[in-house]
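Sanity check

After download, print the first record. It should look like this:
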Amino acid sequence: MKMVSTFEIKKDFGRWLQLVDVELKSKLEEYGMKVHFAYANEDETPVYDMFEIKNPSRVEAFLMDEEVIKLRTKTGVILNSSDELATVVNSKFGKFNSNRG
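Expected C-alpha cells:
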C-alpha cells in the first residue's frame, strides 16, 4: 500500500534525506517500507513524502520503534506533526510526456 504523508522538520531537508537514505535504511527494510519520493517547500519546514509499506498495520509499529524515534528526533523531525494525507491507489513514476496537446 502506498501513502502520502506530511510532517515538519527543524533541520534542513538534506539532513532528513541522510536519515532516510542511510541511518534508517535497515529499519525501513525491517518494516517492509520504501520511500518513493519526498519534497519540501522553500523554507524546508514541512516535508511531504510518498512511501510504500507491504503491511499497512506496521506503520504504527515503525513510528513507535524506539530506535526510529531516536533517529527521527536527532534529525529534527517533529514527531507529533505526522499526518497521513491519502492512500494512493494509482501512481506513475518517471518521465511524463509533456506534449499531450
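If your output differs, re-run the checksum step. Summary of this record's structure: The mean pLDDT is 90.
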